[in-house]
């Protein structure tokens, strides 16, 4: 502890530019500050300060010592804040934004458990399929789907997000079997509108060979839950994130097609991410919510 106090004293001297100013800040006399800095230099066997009657500057060794000392002091402060927050009951308003599909199928069913576990937290949930500026919207956590772009934000991966082709048994019962991606060209494919252009589904076989299949159908939407509902109703074949249809496939409400291929609208590398602003101190309510999301997606994969 004595070493840490001396580090803190030296940092104060360096930042205030004088022994007397640092002493006033810390409630010490200039003589006491001088003695402690001298003792530190003797302990290290190096001069840290160039001192004259009119000025005080850091030596090159003093600059190195200051850089390391500040890093150590900062880490200790971070540790103390994190430990302290873990002992506090998380509380306050938590603002969350989510894409429609993950918000409807994952967040809404699990939120009651979160709110019961943390009764002092209230959640304000907004859902849309548009990218948002977290700072501008004052959002604490944004749940995003897809390929994460480079950003100044911090992201935690909640799940992979492989796309799967599937359809209801009632749709498949009246049609020829689908054995290859090319067979989809003759099927009623329900599509998610990414642009005004023609819908194309991409496939990658086990050997890495890729195939692009233009698909058409009787229903197109920019709403993931609507596409999910249309597939369950037997209207046609859909391309959906695996986590969104996992329970439907297990229960037999949907049948997975072409299991030997990876499928995608655009990119094969996708995921679900909890994204939040870079902050010196992560609030307790944000921390427990992200931990809750991680556990929710982990449980769904079992």
From TrEMBL:
Key words of the record: DNA-binding, Transcription, Transcription regulation
Listed SUPFAM superfamilies: Periplasmic binding protein-like II (SSF53850), Winged helix' DNA-binding domain (SSF46785)
Record-annotated HTH lysR-type domain positions: 1-59
Pfam assignment, any one: HTH_1
UniProt xrefs under InterPro entries: LysR-type_TF_proteobact-type, LysR_HTH_N, LysR_subst-bd, WH-like_DNA-bd_sf, WH_DNA-bd_sf
Family to which this protein belongs: Belongs to the LysR transcriptional regulatory family.
Protein name: LysR family transcriptional regulator
Source organism phylogeny: Bacteria, Pseudomonadati, Pseudomonadota, Alphaproteobacteria, Acetobacterales
């Amino acid at each position: 502890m004595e070493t840490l106090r001396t580090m803190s004293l030296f940092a104060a001297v360096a930042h205030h530019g004088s022994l007397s100013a640092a002493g006033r800040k810390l409630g010490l006399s200039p003589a006491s500050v001088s003695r402690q800095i001298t003792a530190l230099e003797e302990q290290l066997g190096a001069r840290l300060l160039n001192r004259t009657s009119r000025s005080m500057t850091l030596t090159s060794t003093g600059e190195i010592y200051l850089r390391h000392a500040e890093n150590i002091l900062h880490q200790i402060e971070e540790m103390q804040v994190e430990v302290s927050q873990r002992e506090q009951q998380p509380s306050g308003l938590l603002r969350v934004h989510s894409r429609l599909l993950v918000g409807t199928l994952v967040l809404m069913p699990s939120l009651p458990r979160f709110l019961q576990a943390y009764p002092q937290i209230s959640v304000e949930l907004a859902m849309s399929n548009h990218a948002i500026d977290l700072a501008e919207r004052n959002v604490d956590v944004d749940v995003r789907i897809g390929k994460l772009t480079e950003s100044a934000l911090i992201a935690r991966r909640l799940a992979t997000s492989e796309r799967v082709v599937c359809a209801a048994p009632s749709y498949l019962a009246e049609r020829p079997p689908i054995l290859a991606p090319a067979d989809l060209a003759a099927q009623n494919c329900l599509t998610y509108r990414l642009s005004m252009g023609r819908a194309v589904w991409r496939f990658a076989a086990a050997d890495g060979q890729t195939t692009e299949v233009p698909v058409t159908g009787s229903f197109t939407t920019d709403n993931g839950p609507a596409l999910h509902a249309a597939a369950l109703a037997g209207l046609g074949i859909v391309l959906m994130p695996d986590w969104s249809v996992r329970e439907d496939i297990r229960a037999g409400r949907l049948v997975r097609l072409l299991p030997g291929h990876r499928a995608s609208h655009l990119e094969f590398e996708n995921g679900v991410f909890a994204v939040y602003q870079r902050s010196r101190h992560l609030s307790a309510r944000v921390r427990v919510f992200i931990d809750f999301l991680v556990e929710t997606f982990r449980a769904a994969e079992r």
